[in-house]
Automatic annotation (TrEMBL):
Organism superkingdom: Bacteria
Name of this protein: Activator of Hsp90 ATPase-like protein
InterPro entries hit by this protein: Polyketide_cyclase/dehydratase, START-like_dom_sf
Length: 154
């Protein structure tokens, strides 16, 4: 009985401390509507995006979009992501993962600033698997993605 109690206590602690995030930012010399148009046109992602390539699905609230995520030159993963919220020219929010184990909440945030756009790519991770994993490689990939989008828009 003590073992079972200890096991559940460890699971609860892992769940409570299982929180990390990745963040990337870039300033783009283009208005948010231009950046948004590029971001929402998944048919053209292969022309500019070296990180997240859509394999199937449409960017519409409630839909699932499956991406081929190129974390780096060696590692690529197929990741399904549910479109949670879209605010035109401001926010694209997607999420997924394994509930309780490792989930992600991914956001592209566009803010008009100084005649251009501040783009933030932010992802929060939750779950009992998070303490055993580092998002640093993902954060580097998202910085590449932000730079890719900058080049495409400018």
């Amino acid at each position: 009985m003590l073992f079972i109690g200890l096991f559940f206590a460890v699971i609860i602690v892992l769940f409570l401390i299982g929180r990390k995030s990745a963040n990337a930012e870039v300033f783009i010399n283009a208005k948010p509507d231009k950046v948004w148009g590029i971001l929402m046109n998944t048919a053209k992602y292969k022309d500019w995006n070296t990180v997240m390539i859509p394999l199937k699905g449409d960017l519409k609230e409630g839909n699932t979009v499956t991406y081929e995520f190129h974390q780096d030159e060696k590692n690529k993963y197929e990741i399904p992501s549910k479109v949670k919220k879209i605010e035109t020219n401001k926010l694209l929010n997607q999420g997924g993962g394994m509930s309780g184990i490792l989930t992600f909440d991914h956001k592209y945030i566009l803010e008009e600033k100084d005649g251009g756009t501040k783009l933030t790519i932010h992802e929060d991770y939750r779950g009992i698997g998070v303490p055993f994993w580092s998002p640093k490689a993902v954060e580097k990939a998202y910085q590449r993605l932000a730079e890719d989008l900058k080049k495409a828009a400018e």
